[in-house]
Amino acid sequence: MAKKGGSKKGAGSGNTAAVCYRLAESVAAELGFMLWDVRFVREGPTWYLRIYIDKEDGGVSIDDCVAMSHRMDKLLDEKDPIPQAYCLEVCSPGIERELTRPEHFERFMGWPVVVRLFHSAEGDREIAGILSGFDDNEIAVITEEEKELRFTRKETSSVRLLEDWDEDDYGGDSENE
């Protein structure tokens, strides 16, 4: 839903995404969701408040997104933390979701990821491997060659889960082959 603008009430207590994250946490919990991330981004002339929700077992449905959207729409109208017009979007983080918070890295330790770098390392700007470690400053992955590579958080533009659609994993040939 687009907002036409409003007061700056609540705008001084941190950046917009952080303020909205705090608002969305309790709503997500009440509805039985995990709040994955909140982003406030500008694309062309339009601002978007994107709220990413997840479930313990995965499988976020459109109905889940609608429920979260309706609850957040009312709360955002009441609290009015965003002074400019924006569009509210609620969605799943997806299969190849971006890992941004410590709890994301903890949950997916040992999973395949792709680390995208601002500058090339080992001749590549994208490094695939198994997430083997992280802390506030560093991410570690083990590559197919069994080599552990470490990157500072400042070197990385993103870390995403890597979904490998190998036919052995999903049970055989598809109709598209």
Characterize the structure shown.
The protein is an alpha+beta fold and 177 residues long. The protein has two domains: 76 residues, GMP Synthetase, Chain A, domain 3 (2-Layer Sandwich); 60 residues, Roll (SH3 type barrels). The chain is 24% helix and 34% strand. It has four helices and eight strands; from the N terminus they run H-E-E-H-E-H-E-E-E-E-E-H. The strands form two sheets. A five-stranded antiparallel sheet has the order 7-6-5-4-8. A hairpin with a 2-residue loop joins strand 4 and strand 5. Helix 1 crosses helix 2. The radius of gyration is 19 Å and the shape is elongated. The termini are far apart. The N terminus and C terminus are likely disordered.
Mean pLDDT: 85
Shape: elongated
By CATH, the architecture of the largest domain is named: 2-Layer Sandwich
- Considering DSSP H and I runs of 4 or more, what fraction of the residues is helical? 10-25%
Quickly count the helices.
Answer: 4
- What's the level 1 CATH class of the largest domain? Alpha Beta
What are the secondary-structure elements, in order, as H or E? HEEHEHEEEEEH
CATH H-level superfamily of the largest domain: RimP-like superfamily, N-terminal
Class based on secondary structure composition and strand pairing: alpha+beta
Give the biggest beta sheet: 5 strands, antiparallel
Distance between the termini: 40 Å
- Side by side, the strands of the main sheet go 7-6-5-4-8
Tell me the β content.
25-35%
